[in-house]
Task: structure prediction
Amino acid sequence: MSDRQADTAGQFVLDLLAGADDRLHGLDWYPIVKKEFSDTVRTRSLLLLTGLYLALFVLPLIVTLYTDLGGQAATAVTALVQGIAVRLLSVIVPISAIALTYAAISGERQRGSLKILLSLPYTRRDVVVGKLFGRFFVLGAPLVGTLLLQVLVVLPEAESGFQARTVAVLIGLTLLLALSFVGFTLGASAATSTTRRSLIAAGGIWVYLFALWNSVSRGIGGLLRDRTGLEQALTLKLELFVKLLNPTQAYQTLLQSLASSETTVAQARASMFGSLLGGRSSLIRQQAAAQTLSESVPWYLSDPMAVAVLLLWCVVPVAIGYGLFARADL
Result:
């Protein structure tokens, strides 16, 4: 490509972005999105977050592929959506979303600057929607950049092992996970009057999801087996459904079923019984679930249902938070 062609292409992209920006300015909440993004860029938050992602997700790949400690490059991209990599993303992304979002509304409300913002031609709904997308873009920018950088690191060594579909699924579902946690944290921030309360609410829910949700699902499964006459196949399906309602579980099982052509939906859902500390009992239940689902997977355990779970974790808390925020006396 000549310099003149490159300049023309660059100008076309700039004109396209400028046109999109002009059209989006017709939305009342869009200036708040831009303000949220620009304010965060001026702080160290985005820089620290980018550095954390690079250290956790790019540096290990460089060590793996370009040092004597490395493995097979042909499977490097596929490895991004398996095992430790996915588990790490399902922990780091929610924590990042909570850290970036818990003070989005409650912080301004506590400082008194929210009254100034609402004195401008913005409604409370504009504030909630603008901050939702603003904080999501702040989190999504370094996240997408890091995942694409992973691909650039892998490409020189991957050869025919590169799977573009795997990378696309990884990026899309990880952004959906980020949106889910930004949404429910923003809902907590909108519903509370101080940053301390919003952090306790959002952090408490995350701890429950991370540490206690599986225990609750096992308890429900055990209760159904011991106190009802339901068949084992149905109790297994109901227990898996409870597990699927956890957004991090929905994210992990979706990656397994969508990113790998060799993994069926039944195998991906059954793998939710797997655990690093589950032992033999978890393996037995995983095998039983895979066999039970091999004939047919019910709609409430399907991939679309898992996507709906992630979306609902954004929409429902934001709606509840907005309802409380709309009636609050500032």
User: Anything to note?
Assistant: The chain has two domains: 20-209+314-327, 213-305. Residues 9-18 have pLDDT under 50 and may be disordered. Residues 124-158 form the longest helix (35 residues).
